[in-house]
Amino acid sequence: MSVIIEKAGLLDTIQDAGRVGWGHLGINPNGPMDWYAHALANALVGNQENTPVIELHFPASTFRFTEPASIALAGADFGASVNNIPIPVNRMVQVPAGARLHFSRKWKGERCYLAIQNGWQVHASLGSTSTNLKSKFGGYNGRKLMSGDQVNYRKLAGTYSNRVRIANSFVVPIPMRPFIRVLPGPEWDWLDDASQSSILKNEFVLSRHSDRMALSWDAQPLSLKSKNEMVSSAVTMGTIQLLPNGQLLTLMADHQTVGGYPRVLQVIRADLPILAQLAPGSIISFVCTNIEVAFREWQQMKSHLQQIANAVRLQMAFG
Amino acid sequence: MSSLLPTIYRFHETAWLIQFHTGFDPLGNRRVHQLARQFLASHFSYKQVIPGYDSLYLEFEDLPLQKHGANKLEAFIAQQVHSFWQATDNHPIIDSEENTVVTIPVCYDSSLGNDLEAMAIGLNLTVEEIIELHTGRIYQVFLLGFLPGFPYMGQVDERIACPRKQKPVPVKAGAVGIAGQQTGIYPTHSPGGWNIVGHTPLVLFNPDTALPTLFQPGQLVQFSPIDFTTFKNWPAA
Question: How much is the pTM?
Answer without folding.
Answer: 0.95
